[in-house]
Amino acid sequence: MTDAQAALPLPLETPLHQVRGVGAERASQLGRLKCQTVEDLLWLEPRRYEDRRRCCTIADLRLEQPAVIRGKVVAMGVKTFRQHSKSVFELVLDDGTGRLHCRWWNQPYLERYYQEGLELLVYGRLIQLKPRTMDRPEVETVEDNDEAAIHLHRIVPVYPLTEGLSQRWLRTFLWRFIMEQPWRLPEPYPGLPLGGLPSRADALRWLHFPETDTAARLARNRLAFDEFFALQLTIQGRRKKMQAAARGLPCAGDNRWIKPWLAGLGFKLTEAQARVLREIRRDLGGALPMRRLLQGDVGSGKTVVAGAAALMALESGRSVALMAPTEILAEQHYQTFQRWFGPLGIPVQLHTGSRKTTERNQLELAPASPAGAAAGNSVPAAATSPPGELYVGTHALITDDFAIGRLGLVVIDEQHKFGVVQREKLVRKGSYPHVLVMTATPIPRTLGLTLYGDLDVSVIDQSPAGRGRIQTHVREGSALPKVWEFIRQKLAEGRQAYVVYPLVEESEKVELKAVTAELQRLEQNLAPWRVGLLHGRLKAPEKDLLMRQFRENQVQILLATTVIEVGVDVPNATILLVENAERFGLAQLHQLRGRIGRGAHDAHCILVASARTPEARERLQILAESADGFRIAEADLALRGPGDFLGLQQSGLPPFRFGDLARDLKLIEFARQTAQDWLARPVPSAPLNPPSTA
Questions:
Q1: How many CB atoms lie within 10 A of CB 646?
Q2: CATH number, domain at 111?
Q3: pTM for the whole structure
Q4: What is the pLDDT of residue 506?
């Protein structure tokens, strides 16, 4: 290969070991940074930038403030302690204004890489003033050669590294690879309005070697926009395709069951519930299949709304499937709907992995002719008497050997607990049935626009009247004796309590309290009240028996893991004690808190935590100060990121390199609107090179 050929831009999919100047060893090192191809390397985002146009002087250093220092090594050496079991390597820099001590503990080999008189750039935070000291700063050697323009007197990128790969080598290679090659990245969608964002080619250069802080920010925003736009194009395209292929099944009902059912509930719907039901009825009677997300904080009455929506479909002669994430929640829904719908003569079936209330021959439910399927009639008329049934279940509903005749409505409760594929498998049991997905985990707007950008959204933003007040208390472990005395007082008043631990069994590696280890102690401390143990490893009959005993107040304390996080509804339970609360996410704690305060009595959520860091205390204080699920969810997303907030495997979200779902709301909204406008064009242009969302 000639030098001229080597200088030409390489295809983005070129493996790095084929790139001149890389080689097998460097390719292996870059591979540990998840850089396998030219495209991966181009999109390697610096973890920060250093403004080396003006280095700080040692005399001007301030405690805990990050700074870049340039000075010469005037002294260095290794000291050992404790019979050579511990050491510290220290070098002293001088820049003419003062001296700076740089220390590295238990890394004596570093002495080989430095010598007195060497000029260094040091980045770090001062931990003490007398003498001025930094621990484990980042260090680069200053060399007086033609590379100075890359590493000095400019805003310099600082990349993630791996063993054997130096900052200086990687920055030099990327400079020559990006700035010295005539890269001309084409726009993937020519004519796409960018709203002031730079071209992809400019964004690439500015990402690595920006002239200003603004250029670095705009570069990141453009590459994040590419990721969001690609996702929105998929989401909006899927919705457009569905709307073109399907027509809505008539499921608005005729009120013959809803009116007597609502009259017999014993309470009046809130205005928020009534508003959402009007939106759902409009969808169920519309020309297109409903695709709606129902958000409502814990205890807001989503199950009643789901019941009314189910009755609309049942009145229209259609069956309804309701899928819940756990057998405990499915069993509770089954009992609730049996109590509600039994007097109306509507069959309610339970279908879980361990329990089935019907042994109907599924062979009778084989698909009908193609013409019948197009109309949504997937079973012969003889198999549809009664006209519609309600099926409540878990993942067992989506097994291949289970069929549902005349499926008109799919309701998915706590939908974030299911994967995208699981939801689609249930929907495919019918021919474009209406879909209502519900969540009591408030979805931050950024996640809502990305995860559920193809859904219409309804929000129940009122709580039913007559509910008690919930108070949240954060306590340290030393306060537990007083906490138990308070719980005994409430038990004596006739109330019930949940006690939650994060593990089933004790772990040698993690010092956390576990439910199995605590059962005997609680039985002794809380006698004569009965304690029940509930966790995910119990068999279904054991869970059913225990939950029935707790609902009937035969068991007063339910010792549990987070298996009670969703759906458990016992109005007389007014105490929730969570130990090791710092180990839970805010959204999960808010869900657990929703198990209490469901009756007329005031309730108390007690979070016991060894919150040793300011961050941990701040997290729990957010929960203590707010009952607003959306505020809590936003804070949880910012603190933990979407991967931990929802679980990427379940969420269906691609991993983003540049996009940040905690802060990029405006970019996401812009990408969503741009994707809608692009798809609405008479003849959308095919992408030349769709941006990667990897």
A1: 23
A2: 2.40.50.140
A3: 0.70
A4: 53
